[in-house]
Amino acid sequence: MRRDADAACQALSGQDLGAGAVYCTVKEKQAPKTQEAPAPAPARTGTGQGADAPAPAQHADKVWTRAPAAPQPRLDTGAASRFVKGQIGGQARRDDKARAATTLRVTKGCPKDEIGLKSVCESFGGVSSVSIEGDVGVVVFKDADGCKLAQEQLHGIDAFMAGTVECSVGAPVPQKKKKAPPKTPNPSLAARNAERFAAPPRRTSRSPPPAPVPAPDGTDLVGTCLQFCPTAEIEERVGFKELDAFEKPEGFEQMDNETLIEACKATALKKYKRSDAGSIQAKPEIVRPVHVLLKAFEHLRDNVIERATGTLEDAMARYLFLWDRFRAIRKDFILQNYTTGGLVGLEAIRVFEGVARYLVGIEKELQHHAEWREGIAHGKQNAESLSETLSALVAFYDAARCKPNSTELLENEAEFTQYWLVYFLDQEEGSEAAHMLNRIALERPELYMTEEIQRAAGIRKARLDKNWARFFAVVREAPYLIRCLIVAQYADSMRDDALQVLSRSIQRSEPYAARDLALSLGLSVVDCRRRVVDWGGGIDDKGNVLFQKPASFDEEAFDATAFADESVEPLFGEESVTTAVRGDPEALMRAQQAARERKRVAEERAAAERLQREAEERQRQALAEERRRAAQEAQKREQERAAREAQQKAEAERIERERAEALQKARAEAEREERERVEREAKIAAEKEAKRQAWLKKEQQKLEDERKRREAAEIERRQRLERERREEALRLERERLPGRGGGEG
Q: How many other CB atoms are there within 10 angstroms of residue 468's CB atom?
């Protein structure tokens, strides 16, 4: 029930149901003594049609109002859950188009873990959900402005150390969700510790910094809130009874609200709130300037950190309070452009140094708390905050070297560069720390030779060589805070390496003195025996360690405290984070001495560079004079060459003109000869044509005469034939006439 109520509260907060913005909290409700059914919750009023709400739950209910001072009608969890599903009043929560406008798809350069993707996207606006399918990440923002801002800022840069990011705004392509493989239990403490420090996204020196919020005129925002907490937030938290135990002034039980609000102006600190796109969080009147942020940190240091009672639960409660307030302080710095590539100042460096010291030291204080590694796993959020703080400090130091007060700004550079190197020792398979050490050795040799940087380099070498003896020797000699960081990050894996090496170099059945092993591994004798048994070894009847578990050894009946042992000097004495936040006085003295030495070396180097620059200037002047004479000679040679070229050009032009004139005359002569030839050929052709025409005329006359002759011959022939025919006819006629006369006679 409580989980459902929390989910509904998160979904309802800030929504407008038709009667103004909703503010809601979850309250525990005792079950009624009688069996009478509770009265139904009143129906919601608004523009949409109301729905009959079911009876409220018996263990948690919803209280929502338009403003903190208004009456708070109860809303049952059933109606709230239906609102989350978008069913109250027939209203859909968001349509597909609106959902697509708030969805960012990272198709290239997406990180492998969802935490890293979410932490970067939250700097642009509120994030509802994050999922990664294969190489594609899908981020659903609470508003379209934050989604659009993230797409504009992330596209085209290497934001996640996974290549250039390509992202777009739009709904993801539906894909069948793969069933996650079942998780296998991992009882190994080393594995759990490695997972804890590997899971959070770590911001390296090459990672993109959080984007500051500019003022409306384009300049950097400057906070104007001169209190630890804005008055409006104090009034709201007093009205909802959300003051933390470490913020309540003395005698708050007898104060009314107005008196309590006035008293809380000196004790309450601004809570961390995520910024949506265009959020009110960027307004100068609720952002604290840097000097107020320094006072706020000093207030937390003096009144919360240094007043710890020493109990584990008290340390956890103080840590949760401080972790939230430190995030709010860092956010106010970032909003005012105190970030990588932005401003840098003494107040910001001192605050970030104090926060880093606390986050480093609290590792040792809370390492045995149940919620540090399991369940909520506050250790992961601490690792993420420490990563961001150390990376910001390294960036501040880089930017501070060119400042006039660089000596004061870089006073603790060696100490916190050491923390950065140790913290990122395994980042990118060790390449980050190696790159930083090489850069310091080449560019900052005086910083590289400091005790702190040499200690970090020694830890790195011991880790690479798996030299556990050297590793724990360096740890025992190290100051408290760096000891806490080294042990929290790498001690478990180095102890496992030590047990592996010893089990191979010593016969497994041969006993090994538990006290000697405990001294080498930085453990008490009792913890050393437990560690060996958990690793897979055994203990003989004298309390010595066996690297091979005997068949007769009963692990369940084993009691690590049953042996009388000599005490071993522990890695940690009476020191605690409450005294370490101000810094180690001896380390501070060494840092100041190193800073003075660096200043002296810098002055000597500046004088040598000045002399070298003067000599180089004289050399440059002599070289310039020589170059001037050479230029004059070259100019003279160039002029002579130009004159020769001009003369050659004129001669070439003359020859070219003569050649052109000769060519023109030859062309004219050729044209004249061609015309004469054409005329002669035309005359000859005309004569030939006249002769041909005469011959043709003569031939035609001959043909005509021949035709006429033939025609005359033909006529003559026909006339002859006609005469012969008539003569023949007359002859025949004469022959017939005499015969006719004889017959008649």
A: 24
CB-CB neighbours of 741 under 10 Å: 8
Range name among 153-157, 351-355, 685-689 with the lowest pLDDT average: 153-157
Measure Cα distances from 2 to 30, 85, 731 in Å: 13, 18, 163
Asked if pLDDT for residue 281 goes beyond 70, the answer is no
Token digits for 106? 């990272």
Written as one string, the DSSP assignment of 234-283 is HHHHHHTT---TTTPPTTGGG--HHHHHHHHTTT--PPP-PPPTT-GGG-
Q: Which two tokens stand for residue 316?
A: 């956890």
Q: Three-class SS of residue 26? A: strand
3-state secondary structure 637-702: HHHHHHHHHHHHHHHHHHHHHHHHHHHHHHHHHHHHHHHHHHHHHHHHHHHHHHHHHHHHHHHHHH
Long-range contacts of 473-480 (CB under 8 A, 24+ apart): 475/522, 475/571, 476/522, 476/569, 476/571, 479/584, 479/586, 479/587, 480/361, 480/572, 480/575, 480/580, 480/584
And the tokens for 474?
């360096």
**Spatial CB neighbours of 288, under 8 Å, sequence gap ≥ 6:** 223, 225, 226, 227, 228, 270, 296, 329, 332
Closest C-alpha among 92, 366, 328, 110 to residue 227: 328
At residue 601, the 3 state secondary structure works out as: helix
Q: Exposure of 624 by Cβ count < 10 A (0-12 exposed, 13-18 middle, 19+ buried)? A: exposed
Residue 224: other Cβ atoms inside 10 A: 13
What confidence tens digit (pLDDT) does each residue in 697-709 have? 999 999 999 999 9
Query: What is the four-CA torsion angle of 669, 672, 676, 681, rounded to 10 degrees?
Result: 90
Report whether 42 contacts 19 (CB < 8 A).
no
The predicted pLDDT at position 165 comes to 85
Angle of helix 431-443 versus helix 413-423 axis, rounded to 10: 150
Give the count of beta carbons closer than 10 Å to the beta carbon of residue 101: 17
Question: E strands of 280-328, at which residues?
Answer: none
Provide the pLDDT for residue 234: 93
Beta-carbon neighbour count of residue 190 at 10 Å? 17
Distance CA 739, CA 276 (A): 159
Residues 6+ apart with CB under 8 A from 123: 210, 211, 275
Strand 545-546 and strand 136-141: the pairing is: unpaired
Question: First CA to last CA across the chain, in angstroms?
Answer: 177
Angle of helix 525-535 relative to helix 492-505, nearest 10 degrees, comes to 70
CB atoms within 10 A of CB 94: 12
Residue whose structure tokens are 């049952």: 76
| pTM for this model (two decimals) | 0.54
The counts of H helices and E strands in the chain are 25, 9
Average pLDDT over residues 241-248: 90
Contacts for 435-439: CB closer than 8 Å, 24+ residues apart: 436/205
The mean pLDDT value for 174-195 works out to 44
Q: Judge residue 71's burial from the number of C-beta atoms within 10 Å of its C-beta, 0-12 exposed, 13-18 middle, 19 or more buried.
A: exposed
91 close to 48: Cβ distance less than 8 angstroms: yes
Structure tokens at 10: 């998160």
**Chain position carrying tokens 């043709």:** 696
Asked if 136 and 107 touch (Cβ cutoff 8 Å), the reply is yes
285 — phi, psi (to 5°)?
-70, -15
- 3-class secondary-structure state, position 516: helix
